[in-house]
# Entry
Amino acid sequence: MQVALMVQVNSPIGDLLLSTSPRGLTGVQFENDTVERFAVVNSFSKTELKQATDFVHVVEQQLNEYFARQRTVFKVQLDLHGTPFQVDVWKSLTRIPYGKTTSYGQQAKWVGRPAAVRAVGGANGRNPVAIVLPCHRVVGANGSLTGFGGGLERKTWLLELEKWK
# Structure
């Protein structure tokens, strides 16, 4: 994967690492996230760097609006890298409305693999674009909070944030 720019930004839930390629956002990673999702390119053109810098500022602005409860949907180009199944799972996250949750089972049905509940959970655990692709909105079948790459405290915080819109 080609990454043109990586930028660390502050947020109410800790620092986030944003990464982008010339084709779009490749990552929103929490500061304590140990999943390696990014590859850095040592050389890129000045034009690509300018475009990537401008794009990261747009993403940062949209994240700030989200945290201020002024944005419920992100409008940024994504450049997702994973298996076809993972990408399908990640894209299905956009079906979960702001302030709502769904189960891994429902998400498995959305991607046409109703028996693949555990695999959906695994794909969500490798979601490279946290918050923008809202895997924090996926909960256990009984409504319980389950794993989250940023930690359950952040998952709880994000779900609470979305309750008050």
Notes: Strands lie at 5-9, 16-21, 24-30, 102-103, 138-139. The CA atoms of residues 136 and 155 lie 5 Å apart.
